[in-house]
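Hi everyone,

Forwarding the result from last night's run.
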Amino acid sequence: MNSAALKRAKRQVRRTVLEERDALSPRVRAEWGEQIVRRVVDMPEVRDARAVMLFSSFGSEVPTGPLIDRLRERAIVVALPRIEERELVPVAYTPGDPVRTTSFGALEPIGRDGLDPASLDVVGVPGVAFDRLGGRVGYGGGYYDRFLRGLPAFRIGIAFGLQVLEDPLPAGRFDLPVQAIVTEEETIRPDLNSRSIS
């Protein structure tokens, strides 16, 4: 699949999945979000972690505030990403720290130095859609693919079940798969060796 066709295919996935996710009521998002929190904190990779980078949810994403609170109760360092010169920088975050709103709606911490990305044990990865082979379609900026490449951190996609598609997603050679996907109904651990890139 050439670059133009890949972009078109990803745009179509984004449009379809976001329409369905946006239709969820706030009550359903909160209920399913709590089930996702329970699944994430029960993962051995998270239980053993010292530092976890999450994302500041916005719009109809899985709400991450409760997960941030739960991890901090376990004395796990929580980081949120800050965009600096089109790159993600993990910044330690405590609820109440000063933040600013990014152009796309997420909050990012300000006023602290970034953490060494190599200190992260786990990264919770946002996305519009995932597939059962670990494939991911994000929002189109490539931030997470660039940030995660070469990092040893365990990559967890955090999403509602309706965001996990049965058919493989369109993917290019720079698209990095996740190692687990957690939804309100299941924890998926893909066999990354079975992925093929078009």
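The chain is about 30% helix and 20% strand.

Cheers,
N.
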